[in-house]
Amino acid sequence: MGMKNSFGVGFAALFAAGVMSTGSLAPAYAQDAQADALAAQTEALTAEGKGLFLENCAPCHGENGEGGNGPKLDGNTFIQSRENIVNQILWGASDHGMPPFEAQLDDHQIAAIATYVRNSWSNKYGPVLERSVELRRATKK
Fold first, then answer.
1. Looking at residue 26, what is its pLDDT?
2. Rounded distance between C-alpha atoms, residue 17 and residue 65, angstroms
3. Grouped pLDDT means (10 residues each) for the chain, 141 residues
4. Hey, is 128 helix, strand or coil?
5. What is the pLDDT at residue 25?
6. Which fold has domain 32-140?
7. 109 and 52 Cβ atoms separated by less than 8 Å
8. pTM metric for this prediction
């Protein structure tokens, strides 16, 4: 067996043993990188969303999501659904006195507010990305 063949057999053995398979370390690193990127994006959106929430939402929902004229948001299971919260912010709920914000806020701002609400107080529901808002807004057109 020549050097070229033994080299190929060596790689084949490593793949068979799982040492160099695509299912070994590479996906774990990719998953960690994705998780880190998502955590950083959630943190940035949450920080931006706080100011927007205080300006636009706190007058009715309270500074700490405790409710008031609007429902309590802290611990509210309705906001577990990304679709629910985005729809509510975009189109409001006129039967409950909530105005629509589709004309006042862009997709990024709505994503920031939704992410803030979904990850503040006792809520730990994850981010809402701008693309999700864009897609929800497009369903109304």
1. 63
2. 53
3. 46 43 62 89 96 98 97 97 97 93 98 98 96 94 63
4. coil
5. 56
6. Cytochrome Bc1 Complex; Chain D, domain 2 (1.10.760)
7. yes
8. 0.78
Cα-based torsion angle of the residue sequence 30, 113, 77, 129 in order, rounded to the nearest 10 degrees: -30
Angle at which helices 82-91 and 107-118 pack, to 10 degrees? 130
Distance, CA of 121 to CA of 83 (rounded, Å): 20
Instruction: Give pLDDT, residue 15.
Output: 42
Which residues are bridge partners to 98 per DSSP? Answer: 93
- Residue type at position 138: A
Q: How far apart are CA 74 and CA 60, in angstroms?
A: 13
Query: Do 128 and 117 touch, CB atoms closer than 8 A?
Result: no
pLDDT of residue 20: 41
User: Do residues 54 and 63 lie in contact, with contact meaning Cβ atoms separated by under 8 Å?
Assistant: yes
Domain locations in the chain as residue ranges: 32-140
Strand partners, 93: 98
Helix/strand/coil for 70: coil
List helix spans (H) across the chain: 3-17, 25-56, 58-61, 82-91, 107-118, 130-140
